[in-house]
Amino acid sequence: MKNSLLLLMLMISALSGFGQDQQEFSTDLACDVCHSSGDWTKNAGQAFEHLSTGFELLGAHRDIECSRCHTGSNTVERHDFSRVIDECSSCHEDVHRDQWGQDCERCHDSDSWVLPTIFQNHDLTRFPLQGAHQNQSCEGCHMNNPGKKEILPLDCWGCHEKDYVATRNPDHLDSGFPRSCDVCHSQNDWMSRVVDHDKTRFPLRGAHIQVDCESCHSTGYSISTSCESCHQSTYSGTQNPNHQNYGYPEYLCEACHNSTSWEPSIFTHNVISLECASCHGVEYSATSEPPHELMSIPNTCADCHTSNAWVPSEFEHSEQNTGFPLQEAHTEVICQDCHTTWVSASEPRTCYYSSCHLSAFQETNDPDHELYGYPGNYCESCHSQTAWDPAIFSHNLPSIECVTCHLVNYSATAQPPHETVTFSQNCAECHSTATWVPSQFPHDLQTTGFLLEGAHLSTDCQQCHSTWESVSVPRTCADASCHLPDYQATINPDHEAVSFPLDCTECHSSNAWTPATFDHDGLFFPIYSGKHNNEWNECSQCHINSMDYSAFTCFGSECHTMTRMNDKHCEGSSCESCNGLTYQANLVTPDDCYSCHPTGDEDDCKGSSDSFYPPDRWLKPTESNQK
Question: Which of 277, 287, 449, 539 has its CA 20 to 30 A from that of 565?
Answer without folding.
Answer: 539
